[in-house]
Specification:
Low-confidence stretches: none
Shape: globular
Radius of gyration: 23 Å
Oligomer: single chain
Helix content: 25-40%
Number of helices: 15
Mean pLDDT: 95
Bound molecules: flavin-adenine dinucleotide
Length: 455
């Protein structure tokens, strides 16, 4: 980024939002996976400013890495080719919440939790709930098609998108979709940008669909002797016509490691633990929770607890929510995969992951969203150990291969980023890669948007 360009950007944004001091560059150099080195950080507040930035970057061929909350777990927002980090966090207005049309229009820098709170205050509900909702931004969620625990019942971010405003690589402003719930006009450009990880355009406005807020919920925590029993329990619940909001899975290695760190009283002798949540109208929820509780008791669960108040529910969630934070502190390096398989392959995936980790002399614990087969093998690594990262890479490759062989996918929700780029070909064949490259070339012919990622 030449000095003359910095002056040009300062004219558009002012000095406060055009940063090149080393400490600022450092602060914007990393996400939750990797670190790069930007030359300039630009913080626009309007679509016009984003457009002006991209017009200049396009003219000069300068790389631009869009950034939301920086919570990517796969290096999606790590700037690896220098250039500009375009931070969207000050485009943070909730522009409209319409009860009548059940939709919200927001800028990309709105923290996900703020959107949840704003719509719930008027009796509406925006279901996608990545566990990072207190730090991730809605633009980042759209760019990664974020999922979360509630997605079993409600679907992922893309299921709630009605339309987008996107600034293209050359600065032109594209509008996609509409305010209508049903819309089949032309190619589905909204979905094309959803999950594109900042490689096709900068999202500057988002219209999301909302649904009525469920009246109540129940949380049930149960521990089972084996992973197979947990898997059977999942099938039994869904087979009974119950679609829980949440069906979280924790394996024995996770329970033991977290218990050692936090002393929460987790059942370390259990092979697996399931955290199940049902929501809806009071009568239906009471009945569904009763059926789940009965299944657990009748089919050999080691224990079962049902929470009826938000406080009791928080207590049951503790082992799941606080556990991952404890693991982050305990390990020198924690890397969480998010391999996703058809639900029937979960026991095999869990067993194979432990086998691969054992062979590679690596420590792994597994949590996941059991209902949709989205597993998170969490590797607790020590890069200072001889050959640890090489063994980790080899183990990862094997797990990705296995996942695809089972009809699954490299990523259920975290995305590709830097982490899974080397493995993309395991799932996407040459024709698929060619198609993706053609899309990239059409929308970003100079390859300035988040270069080095995806294609
Ligand atoms: C503790 C923790 C728990 C997590 N749990 C979950 C989970 O349950 N489910 C889940 O899906 N993910 C989870 N994640 C991963 C991460 O939070 C999600 O991928 C999230 O959607 C990223 O949002 P962000 O705003 O932080 O985006 P960033 O990390 O800043 O960026 C992510 C990608 O989006 C692009 N991008 C960001 N904003 C824009 C924009 N306006 N226009 C175009 N591109 C843009 C970036 O270039 C990058 O490619 C978790 C992460 C952490 C740290």
């Amino acid at each position: 980024v030449k000095k003359s360009l910095v002056r040009e950007f300062r004219k558009i944004l002012g000095a406060q939002r055009c940063l090149d001091a080393p400490e600022d560059l450092y602060a914007y150099s990393h996400d939750c996976y990797a670190r790069g080195k930007p030359e300039l950080v630009l913080i626009p507040r309007t679509t016009q400013e984003v457009s002006a930035i991209l017009r200049i970057a396009h003219r000069e061929g300068v790389p631009v890495t869009p950034r939301g909350g920086g919570s990517s777990l796969c290096g999606a927002t790590t700037p690896i080719r220098g250039g500009i980090v375009l931070a969207t966090n000050q485009m943070d207005k909730i522009l409209e919440v319409s009860q009548e049309d059940r939709l919200a229009v927001v800028e990309p820098g709105v923290v996900t939790l703020r959107l949840h709170q704003a719509v719930e205050a008027v009796g509406l509900f925006y279901p996608p709930d990545p566990a990072s909702y207190a730090m991730s931004l809605i633009g980042g969620n759209v760019a990664t098609n974020a999922g979360g625990p509630r997605c079993l019942k409600y679907g992922v971010t893309r299921d709630y998108l009605l339309g987008l405003e996107v600034v293209l690589a050359d600065g032109e402003v594209l509008q996609t979709g509409s305010r209508a719930v049903k819309d089949v006009t032309g190619y589905d450009l909204t979905r094309l940008f959803c999950g594109s990880e900042g490689t096709l355009g900068v999202i500057t406005r988002i219209t999301v669909r909302l649904i009525p807020k469920p009246e109540t919920k129940r949380t049930i925590l149960t521990s089972l002797r084996t992973v197979e029993e947990a898997s059977q329990m999942v099938s039994r619940i869904i087979g009974a016509g119950i679609l829980p909001t949440t069906l979280e899975f924790m394996d024995q290695a996770y329970l033991q490691t977290v218990e050692e760190l936090m002393h929460l009283g987790l059942p370390v002798e259990a092979g697996a633990m399931l955290l199940i949540e049902v929501d809806g109208f009071e009568e239906a929820v009471e009945r569904q929770a009763g059926i789940v509780e009965r299944f657990c008791k009748e089919h050999g669960a080691l224990d079962v607890a049902v929470a009826r108040t938000p406080q009791e529910s928080d207590q049951l969630w503790k082992g799941r929510r606080m556990g991952t934070v404890a693991l982050m502190r305990a390990a020198k390096l924690m890397i969480s995969h998010d391999a996703t398989v058809p639900a029937s392959s979960i026991p095999e995936l869990v067993a194979h992951t432990h086998e691969v980790a054992l062979q590679a002399d690596l420590k792994v614990v597994i949590i996941g969203h059991a209902g949709d087969g989205n597993m998170h093998p969490i590797f607790l690594l020590d890069p200072s150990r001889q050959g640890e990262m090489e063994r980790f890479d080899k183990a990862s490759r094997e797990l990705f291969r296995f996942t695809v062989e089972k009809g699954g996918t490299l990523s259920g929700e975290h995305g590709i980023g830097l982490e899974k780029n080397p493995y993309l070909h395991l799932q996407v064949n040459e024709i698929g890669m060619r198609t993706m490259r053609a899309i990239k070339k059409a929308l970003d012919p100079k390859g300035i948007l988040n270069p080095g990622k995806f294609v």
